[in-house]
RNA sequence: GAGGGAGUGGCGGAAUUGGCAGACGCGCCGGAUUUAAAAUCCGGCGGCCUUCACCGGCCGUGCGGGUUCGAUCCCCGCCUCCCUCACCA
């Protein structure tokens, strides 16, 4: 029988499971390696071939590291709380736990069919009581530290789902997953004070081996800006009166109004305090609390109308008209603390309440947004920064010119804002200072005057941590009658999810847990006083914030993990997952980890030392002009290679395009089908061969056939199937003798192959590693005799990629132990270099011939052989060589 | 609009401290084998020109310049695509 994956794969998978081959324990005699996949949400639709791309990558590394002598921790589990199971529960009238178990069983089976080297003894699900007990335990730690708190906040309420969503889950006024509309509501919610860790979350990125783009995304998300805040005093009465009002040092963020309503003030945040002299007006966000009280009577109607309009606009997509500036004058003026002059206060929606102080000083000369606004409403524009004289000779844009000029009019700020650094002008005591110096000087001045201080501002906001859902972790807290909230004692964890009759919000809009009335009404075990339980549940992110820690000690019943396990296994050495988690899961998990670090519960500052994103696998889809999609098996090409497609049954023409796999596009490839047709080894190999692991790829069945053929060729080096026979015979070409003199070249190829595969694995270069193995197998194919020594390393090289075939061959070679436990083959560096090199010879930079030189040859030999070449001489056309460039082992270039 | 990444045959992709561009695979073409087919094995395949054929020649890594003996790789200026953020003061 020729290579038949179905005859060998289940056998080895069973044996690995039965013998717990990949179960590991803390073993301080060995170096550890912790390889982790981002664990999946077990959806009802099962795996598609995109999931195993990352899983295959970690599995290859995991098996390889193991063969290199590492104690490898490679676990898998389920991020199983979440909305889809809850909705399925409503649909099917089953408990979400039932749905979840069904989906998990399916996922596990699908994953196990691929022969991954997971330690299944460590499998966890975030929905297991023994797991979420510890999620609640960690929550209490955060609560005790004041990092989990309740607040009345404007939330993203999704009426269709009956729950709030995190800011990150909403884009353009819609839930990113389903597209359901989302609106603003003010509700009591649980919040996580992630902002307290903003600085460390940004600075600790530096030491991580993560894709730079991903680190950038996190930096942008956290959004650190350094600047200053400055207090502006409001003049009441609506008339500018040049009299400087008294400053209010340390004014509260958001503004304040004195009892007499004579002086009000507000604070702005700016990254450019050096431009304060250029602030010609101020802008408050429409929701700013001061707006109502400072607006003058003549303007009141217009301002009210604007504020109302802005509020409604915020609910729709406000992105659309972000270019057009709108606003309204309040009729009030503020004193520019630097110039002492009154400047108008406007309301405009380009200032956001949620960032900084919700108020800005507008410097239209040096900020594009302020400039656009000033132009739109005819506000004055003043230049307070001029460009630095550029060094002579350097070209540049219009805003860079001005070498030798002393005038400040070299850039025209009336035309466009000048936002670059420069030298301060028209700025009193700042004149002549560079932007950096002026920034420092102004900040100091503000501090001395009691009008402001240096300030660091982050875009990051606190994390909205509650959801109005059933299928999540209950909050282990009690609300007492006096309005306080106290933790459930640790010894009463876990706080179990109560059974309820329907997984929907109550009629009066309370979360589903409110249906469990007996559960909600309880008593405080410490005092016996009546108490109410929290009816919100935690978001899905909670469980995934610490699962990597549970994996290191999953059965621990006295602690979430032991110190011993933590100190041995952490941090995660390689973490692989989709880029879609760049700023959500990865930021939340880092935040929790840092809190745990501060509590002394973990010993590393960061959880994931090295992280890589696997690319997305896409596939062709087929669509009629009407938009209707068809399954790939239902269409055919009108003629081979024509690129034109039609529906087989109806003949209707369809267009084809490459798209993200989705059910609705009918282009999902199920790994079960691939395993059925080609086997798990081919599936794994193709996932690796499709392209670099971090870029995506187009799934093509032909490609799977290609790697399947390769595995067949490798198989046939060991087994032959005589005509008509049903069983394989050991290939008679395999001989037990030393490598012969005519086999030296192939021996070298073997060593080069081991070298390249090893080097490529170290950088996750799976596709090139496979390509090198193909070269080697091709070279062995068709040889009349095959010394065992040339064959023996091959299954070991192959085993991380195609472990089933490798085990089978390994056993046939007479080994009693598993190849999974075999040592990784070594190469002899001396056999990886050629004695003789083929060197290109160029004439005037064009290759004209090649010469063969010994690796030891000196430059003179290169030159002599190059010039002796007939082809080279012809190309030289009889002219003398002006110069001969010899780069040993690389090239010869003859210049005539 | 800002930031990041990428453009290489019919296709996926190799190759860069600057040294023979296109490894490997898909696809296609031809041959062997076969009653035939499948499978397998062998050979060929960047474009243009020249040639009966061999042998040759020119062009070619998004476009235009530059540095260099030599550029897919470095520099300058563009174009296109992808991703992320999007009035963050």
Please characterize this protein's 3D structure:
With 896 residues, the chain is α+β, with helices and mostly antiparallel strands. It folds into 5 domains: 138-202 and 462-533, no CATH class; 224-458, Alpha-Beta Complex (Isoleucyl-tRNA Synthetase, domain 2), CATH 3.90.740.10; 617-668; 677-833, Orthogonal Bundle (Isoleucyl-tRNA Synthetase, Domain 1), CATH 1.10.730.10; 834-895, Ubiquitin-like (UB roll) (Roll), CATH 3.10.20.590. 31% of the residues lie in helices and 20% in strands. Strands 8, 9, 10, 11, 12, 13, 14 and 17 form an 8-stranded mixed beta sheet that branches. Strand 21 (521-523) and strand 22 (530-533) form a beta hairpin. It is globular and about 100 Å long. Mean pLDDT is 87; it is low at 238-261 and 390-409. The chain binds one RNA strand of 89 nucleotides through helix 7, strand 10, strand 14, helix 10 and strand 30.
Question: What is the fold's blueprint, element by element?
Answer:
Blueprint: H1 5-18, E1 32-37, H2 51-67, E2 71-73, H3 83-92, H4 96-112, H5 129-144, E3 148-158, E4 163-165, E5 170-171, E6 174-175, E7 183-192, H6 198-203, H7 212-222, E8 224-235, E9 256-257, E10 263-270, E11 281-284, H8 290-294, H9 297-315, E12 328-335, E13 342-347, E14 359-362, H10 368-377, E15 385-386, E16 423-424, H11 435-449, E17 452-458, E18 463-464, E19 477-480, E20 485-487, H12 517-520, E21 521-523, E22 530-533, H13 541-544, H14 547-550, H15 563-569, E23 574-577, H16 585-598, E24 611-613, E25 617-624, E26 629-630, E27 635-637, E28 645-647, E29 653-660, H17 671-678, H18 680-689, E30 697-698, H19 701-718, E31 719-720, E32 729-730, E33 734-735, H20 744-762, H21 766-780, E34 786-787, H22 788-791, H23 793-798, H24 803-812, E35 836-843, E36 846-854, H25 859-868, H26 870-876, E37 883-887, E38 891-895
The chain binds one RNA strand of 89 nucleotides through helix 7, strand 10, strand 14, helix 10 and strand 30.
